[in-house]
Every structure is written in C-alpha cells, then in structure tokens.
Amino acid sequence: MTHPATTATTRPRKRIHLAAHFPGVNNTTVWSDPDSGSQIDFSSFRHLARTAERGRFDFLFLAEGLRLRERKGLIHDLDVVGRPESLTVLNALAAVTEHLGLAATVNATFNEPYELARRFASLDHLSGGRAAWNVVTTSDAFTGANFRRGGYLDRADRYHRAAEFVEVARALWNSWRPGGAPRTVRHTGPQFDITARPTLPHSPQLHPVLIQAGDSDEGREFAARTADVVFSRHGTLEPGRAFHTDVKRRLARYGRTPDELKIMPGVTFVLGDTDAEAQERATHIRRQQVSPQTAIAFLENVWGRDLSAYDPDGPVPDIDPVPDSDVVQGWAHAGDRFGVAARWRALAEEKKLSIRELAIEQTARQSFIGTPASVAAALDEYVQTDAADGFILVPHLTPGGLDEFVDRVVPLLQERGVFRTEYEGTTLRHHLQLPTPHPGREE
C-alpha cells in the first residue's frame, strides 16, 4: 500500500527513524526461498546487523520467546524461540558493529530486576551506550511452568509487575553518583523487596532505551509513563495517526514532552521496478508466508479445535470455538474466542474469503509495496503527518531481506533530507533524538 507524498508544511521536516527486526520464524519468514538462511548461525545475525548499520539505522531488534509452542501435543516448528537467547546474541554483535543500537526483548514476568538490570548495563557498557530493552510480559501458565512461580500471575497484574520492575531497574541504573560510589537502592513493593547496590557505573547513555509494545489502554498508559519507544501495531495512516495522538497526549501526565517518546510501527516492504511488479511479488510472498498448514494452525489458535480436516482453500468453519482448550499451547490467543470467530466468519462471508485468504488478511502487517521512489514517499508521508515517528522493518528473508531496502530506498530518503547520511553520535539515545536521563537521580 503506497501513498503520494504530502505537500510541504511550514514546520521543519521530521527525521525518520528506522530499525531492523531480525525475522521471526513464524508467518513472517519464507523458509522455502532459496535465499533463506539459518536462524541460529551467528553469521546471519552479523549480516543483518551490518546491513542495518550500513543503512545508518537506529537499532536492530530481536524478538524472544521462553517456551516452544505446541499444537496438539507436538512442537510447532515455526517458532521464534528456536534460536539463541537475545542478550547473548547482542553482546556478540556489539563487537562487530560500531554505531547500531542493540535491542533485546526480555520478559519482566519471569526475571528479577537486579539480575536483569546488571545484564543490560553490561551490554550498554560493552556497546558504548547502544543497548535497548523491549519490556514484555506473560500471563499464561504454559510458559510459567518453566519457572518456579509457575503461571500464577493474573493477566491484569502483568503491567503492575512490569511497571514496578522498570522502577527498580531504573533506580539501580541511576544510583551511581557522578564521580562517586553507588548509593544503596531500597525498594519494597507488591512484587519486589530488595536492598542492593549496582556493580556497574553509568554507561555512556546512563541506562538502556526502553521499548514497549502493548496496545490496551493500560499498555498505552504504561508506555506514556515508562517507554522511550513504542513498537506499535498501528501501521496504516488513519489508525496510526489516532494511536500517535492518543499516546503522545498521555505524556504530559508524567511531565514528559511528545519528543521523549518515539512511535515506530512494525512494517514490511516489497520493492519492484514498477508498482505492478511489486504488487505481484508481494502477493507471491504472502502466499509463501501463509501456507495451507499455517492457515489451519492460525484458525486453530482461536477455535481451540483440531481443524485439520478442513480444506484451507474452503470456507471458514461454521462450528463454534471451544472456550477452554489445550489444543494450542504457547500462543497468545484471543481472549474472546467466540467474538473473534464471529467477526472473522462475517468478514470471510462478506469478502468471499477462504480459510487461507482470511489468515493472509488477518496476519498481515502494514506493508509498503511499490517502487523504491513510491515507498520512500509513503514512508516520508507517514512521518511528516504524524502517523509514526519511524518504522521497525520486518523483512521476510534471513539474513539478506534488508539488503534491497538499504541499497534502493535509504538513498532516496537521504535525498529527501529526512534520514541521516552519517551517524552523528555514539549512543542509541542520540540516534533516536531522546534526552539522556539525569545521572544520580531516580526517575
């Protein structure tokens, strides 16, 4: 989907922020492509990171999972957890990059503040101030069974724990007085009771950039209070503008300005020498991403039933979902199965969609499809009209899926004057045009 560039306004043109998402091994990655590589070999991570740095991107983003997904008691093989742990990978990448920010997804439900704050502080030091933490939470007992606390944490309590976790981590990161020793951090709350001194002084950016991805009202409030970057799901123009406006207006409640939070939706892209060629290529990629088996698995996630007898190219099942099911484990299925199934069935009937076509439509991210010039114009329009502050690009190939964008689109953004031609600072906060936290003061 592309859009023409808007007319110039009187305000200064905003800089576009770009990040690269290492492809997840799910319905994003195209395994069957001859250019698809390993999700485990370090060379894959190094290639994507160096490509992003060559393109002067702000950061590289790694997703994370804590348990292999299961379907009908069997391991579901298209899973992001089938690769090395994110912080380990990023510490290695710090040695083969110079400027690129390094963002890891780490769970606040099944970690402890002191230990995790120390690990991120270590990455921040080793990288020269380029670390970022994507704060995520988990409430399902299936994942919790891997840990001592099990799955006790109610879904409603996820953000309470995450907010307190971040509060403690920030207190630890901020406690080292400039030119002196660290002060003792004492915290007593519903989730944590600690007395500790950090073992590392401030990093060049004081502490890691915080990323958050929740979209509920409580998630948006958590982002406004806590995050530096929001990994948004709202990638199209009007929903993007509405989300951008809503989250930015919440910042004032916490004494923050709109520039202190960057909103970056996850998006895909497909390029061609003509718009028609790009659209044809995009259709082919989507059908590779959502195979017949993937389409059935996608519906089973909501229906909670074994749907393997249904034809992926046939109509959506007219049976109701099962309220409580263990057919699918480890997927963040929709809470209201009946409501979601009813909406999907109505949509399929209205548009005459098969199971596979419905799965393709429902799993699609915003995708910028067209020539390099039209994609550059569309990205620029989104940022200049406040639908986003930048984008986290999710390529469909590992590890070379970003190469074409860096070679063909980035130069056009640079010509427009909306993307850097060289790195101007050394820390991720500088890349993102974020303020540096005040040292020696708890936030």
Automatic annotation (TrEMBL):
Domain called Luciferase-like: residue spans: 34-385
Pfam families assigned to the protein according to its UniProt record, in alphabetical order: Bac_luciferase
Catalytic activity, EC: 1.14.-.-
Keywords: Flavoprotein, FMN, Monooxygenase, Oxidoreductase
Entry keyword annotation includes Oxidoreductase: yes
Residues that bind FMN: T105, Y159, S216
InterPro entries: Diverse_substr_monoxygenases (IPR051260), Luciferase-like_dom (IPR011251), Luciferase-like_sf (IPR036661), NTA_MOA (IPR016215)
A GO molecular function held by the record: oxidoreductase activity, acting on paired donors, with incorporation or reduction of molecular oxygen
Record carries keyword Ion transport: no
NCBIfam families tied to this protein: FMN_nitrolo
Family: Belongs to the NtaA/SnaA/DszA monooxygenase family.
Protein name: NtaA/DmoA family FMN-dependent monooxygenase
